[in-house]
Amino acid sequence: MSKKSSVQDVGARAHIALAQGPVEPSTVTSVHVPTARTTAPPRRRVRRDWAGWWFVGPFMLVFALVFLAPLFYAIYLSLFRETLMGGNSFVGVENYAQALTDPKFWEAMGRVAIFLLVQVPIMLLLALFAALALDSARLRWVPFYRLSIFLPYAVPGVVAVMIWGYMYGSQFGLVADLNHFFGVELPSPLATNLILVSIGNIVTWEFVGYNMLIFFSALKSVPQELYEAAEIDGAGTFRTIFSIKLPSIRGALVIATVFSVIGSFQLFNEPSILQTLAPNSIPSYYTPNLYAFNLSFAGSQFNYAAAIAIISGVITMVVAYLVQLGGEKKGAGA
């Protein structure tokens, strides 16, 4: 039936009702005549709320000033080169090409890689062992031990290196006193073949407490019901550690590993300060950061130093991301 005929039928029924006379209001049935077009209600204009930016804005401003601005400026510097005639000239990626073929840079990067592969696992294992020992409920005076292990992290890095540097000295300090007391000649920790081990010892002493606190806090968040279920099943101490504790703190292990990887690539304070005590053992390019620092402030090669810093930052970011990705994949597989 078409729309036109339906309207005519409705009109006919209304005419018959009017011919029959007045009817009671209660008996009148409302008749709806369909219209060809219905008008949509007017759309209300949504007012944007800027309140959240008042909270995020101060952080974004500081972030832009202390992170983004120096980063962009370093990238800008790396694209230029200071020449004797003509001043700063645009060279594009020539500084990066030079850095990628610089044997000193790759020697420094290899030294840091060895440091990472040896020192980081030792430090994390010591921190994990300390956290498990404190969480085992078999030690008395747990707050005292926890504070004692964490205390070296509270010592400023420069002070810590100076303390250990004094003990390492074969002509003064602890090693010299031991040589004199026992009448022996101990190997000098500041020798060329031992200086990297000595630096690793200082870094481990500094950061074991920091990582221990991360692991210990994660262990305290493990539900007690898991331990009760393991005890009912007859699980021993080692079974509980490997089946409950370590899987439960996998996220903390990954975070601590990523932080340690980044810290290894940023190695600077320890070799920089020990360089004054052992100049023959620590060259100016001992680590990438030390190399970039000496290029800038000793050689006035700011543009090339900026390229070195950018490449080091990219390598650090890639390695840290791969470590995090590997930890997440193992967690998902478990």
TrEMBL record:
Its main location: membrane. InterPro entries: MetI-like, MetI-like_sf, UgpAE/MalFG_permease. The keyword Phosphoprotein does not apply. It is a multi-pass membrane protein. It is found in: Cell membrane. Keywords: Cell membrane, Membrane, Transmembrane, Transmembrane helix, Transport. Gene3D superfamilies: MetI-like. Residues 109-323 form the ABC transmembrane type-1 domain. Pfam families: BPD_transp_1. Signal peptide: none annotated. The chain crosses the membrane at residues 53-76, 112-132, 144-167, 194-216, 249-268, 302-323. Belongs to the binding-protein-dependent transport system permease family. This is Lactose transport system permease protein LacF. It comes from Oerskovia enterophila.
